[in-house]
Amino acid sequence: MASIIEDIKLKFRKGNMVIKLIYVNVGVFVVLLILGLIGGLFMPMQGHPGLEASMGEWSQWLHLYSNLSKLIFRPWTLITHMFTHVDAFHVLFNMLMLYFSGQLFIQFFGEKKLLPMYLLGGLSGAVVLILASTFLPYFAHTDGTALGASAAVMAIFIAVCVYAPTMKANLFGVFPIELRYLGLIVFAIDLLTFFTGNTGGHIAHIVGAGFGYYMARQYLQGNDITKGFSRFIDKFFSMFKRSNSDLYVSHSKVRKMKDEDYNFTKKRIQERVDEILDKIGRSGYESLTDEEKDFLNKSSRQ
Questions:
Q1: What is the pLDDT of residues 62-83, one digit of tens each?
Q2: Is residue 146 helix, strand or coil?
Q3: What CATH number was assigned to the domain covering residues 60-232?
Q4: Are strands 145-146 and 64-65 parallel, antiparallel or unpaired?
């Protein structure tokens, strides 16, 4: 079991942002599944609501409430809802779409823009859903919720379709179709099923698609609308990283350590070097910060 966990951790660390997002989504689903199974055992068999409802009991702290009076006490759900699924088909479809469109997105726009695009697509859908639920009569007397990566994935998918409209993909692995037509088909499905259930979800999907369209059009004109948010994400995650000056230990000092401590420190230094080399492979040497360049130079002298 320990080797499986270590293998998962290694693949997560080595994988690109598409793989990382898939791992997070699937990981949250698996945790909710386990909690749902355990919680379901404590419910009477007669009238049992089912596994999905049992998972939903746990996910209520992660999904988004469109009611502002509830949302204000759970602001984190603006983010967590787009990583939360309680239906196996839902998470499977979203992750297949994310893998297909995410790999193309990285090819066209670069890996660094994928996470900002994912988050902005999901947030744009969430904000418009909240506004619609607050002001539109259709949603009066309802207390809607939203969960799933659909709006975020739609933003990525439509951005890819707009950037390379004539590129062909094989629908169901058999029928070649240009991305612009595939995008129209997916978008039309949301429109045609708008009032057949989950209207709030369809609103979020459509808004996410609209954001993806706008982002790609602006990018083709030389404007990157994700740039500011990308900087914010970089600063946010940097707060949780330990200073690499603490990580670096001179050769002479390491040799005075016990073998276990020496091996552990050496492993951490190598992991950091691997991360920097991966970054160079993705974005080039010039993308490195001064601290990363300094760390790489120091480690190369060992």
A1: 989 888 888 899 999 999 999 9
A2: strand
A3: 1.20.1540.10
A4: antiparallel
